[in-house]
Recover the amino acids of this structure.
């Protein structure tokens, strides 16, 4: 099945989303040694890292669903990203 051609605005939005995803992954790579060095399971940094990893996973899934024109699934995953902020 061929995917529909994207408009310039859609291409720009996907490019921005990929940049945000790269920044989040770079942040995870930077933070992991610091969190592991603390060693406390109840550390606020541990919770923050877990939420960031969950958000990155949901965001990656949302991008995949958006590319496959699965709007409802994409919205569900995006909503999960916003819920992680709360």
């Amino acid at each position: 099945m061929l995917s529909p051609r994207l408009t310039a605005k859609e291409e720009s939005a996907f490019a921005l989303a990929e940049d945000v995803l790269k920044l989040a992954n770079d942040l995870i790579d930077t933070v992991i040694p610091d969190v592991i060095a603390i060693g406390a399971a109840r550390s606020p940094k541990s919770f923050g890292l877990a939420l960031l990893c969950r958000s990155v996973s949901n965001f990656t899934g949302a991008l995949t669903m958006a590319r496959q024109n699965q709007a409802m699934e994409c919205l569900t995953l995006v909503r999960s990203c916003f819920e992680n902020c709360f």
Observations:
- Residues 6 and 12 are 10 Å apart (CA to CA).
